[in-house]
Write a structure and sequence with these properties.
This protein has a single domain, classed as Cobalamin biosynthesis CobH/CbiC, precorrin-8X methylmutase (Rossmann fold), CATH 3.40.50.10230. It is built from ten helices and six strands, in the order H-H-E-H-E-H-H-E-H-H-E-H-E-H-E-H. Helices cover 53% and strands 9% of the residues.
């Protein structure tokens, strides 16, 4: 049991225990990393068969991060869970405006949720970005609307709001309309820590990919 004193050993053991719960799903090695990190963050092995992604979504997220994309999120809890040092090295930042006084004013004037007003306020900055929604279905609905109606083109939407009112429906709309590459979890499960785990897994994949290219003399 000495491994419980070693964080890296704990993580490796956890991944070994998680592996059987994703081994029956047709996934690339990069997708396995994302699925496994989501299961690890949630402590719920059922996630493996609840996760839904568009084809190539994980690769799209990795490529966007490699280009130094920014991340826009609905709540500060997502922002807190992202490895911002790693993101900074890649040239990106995380933005969340839900607590801004200006956003509260706009939301009150328009009689809409602050999360919706905050997402809308990012406007064209969302082009080429990663959108992470871990709490508010209204933010996910607005992101989908902006893609469909305003022509916004994010590189990836990670839409995993949690809860019993609107969460499952907003995620089903994301899957059904697939307005751009997406990663989600069907049903009521999800949350900020799961969104952060996806982003951190994408960055981990990028580091691993760059290391392999370096070893192979291709970078």
């Amino acid at each position: 049991m000495d491994f419980i004193k070693n964080p890296r050993a704990i993580e490796e053991k956890s991944m070994d225990l998680i592996d059987p719960f994703v081994s029956d799903i047709d996934l690339t090695s990069e997708e396995i990393t994302v699925y496994s990190r989501m299961i690890h963050a949630s402590g719920d092995v059922d996630y493996g068969h609840l996760i839904a992604t568009s084809k190539g979504a994980v690769a799209a997220g990795i490529d966007a991060l490699a280009k130094g994309c920014n991340i826009y999120t609905d709540v500060n809890m997502v922002k807190a869970g992202i490895n911002k040092n790693a993101l900074s090295v890649l040239g990106g930042e995380v933005f969340c405006r839900v607590s801004d006084p200006e956003i509260a004013k706009i939301a009150k004037e328009k009689n809409i949720a602050r999360s919706m007003a905050a997402m809308n306020s990012f406007g064209a900055d969302l082009n080429g970005s990663i959108i992470g929604v871990g709490n508010a279905p209204t933010a996910l609905y607005e992101a989908i609307r902006m893609v469909e109606e305003d022509g916004i083109k994010p590189a990836l939407i990670i839409g995993i709001p949690v809860g019993f009112v609107g969460a499952a429906d907003s995620k089903e709309q994301l899957v059904r309309k697939a307005p751009c590459p997406f990663i989600t979890v069907r049903g009521t499960k999800g949350g900020s820590s799961i969104v952060a785990s996806v982003i951190n897994a994408l960055m981990f994949n990028l580091v691993q990919r760059d290391h392999m290219l370096y070893v192979q003399g291709r970078k």
